[in-house]
Amino acid sequence: MELKILTSFLLSLVFGLMTIPLILKFCKERQLYDIPNFRKRHKQAIPRLGGIVFLPCMLLSFGLVLVIFSIMHAAYDLVHLWYLYLMFGFMMIYIIGIFDDIIGLTARFKFFVQFLAACCLPVAGIYINNMFGLFGIGDIPSCVGIPLTVFLILVIINAVNLIDGIDGLSSSLTLIALCVFLLVFSSLNAWVICVMCAGLAGSLVAFLRFNMFGKLEKNTKIFMGDSGSLTLGYIISALFVRYLMLCAANGESDYYGVILVYSALVIPVFDVARVVLFRIRKTQSVFEADRNHIHHRLMDAGLNQRKSLGVIIVMAVLYIIGNFLLYRGTGNITVIVVADIVIYTLFCLIVRRLKVNKT
Question: What is the pTM of this model?
Answer without folding.
Answer: 0.91
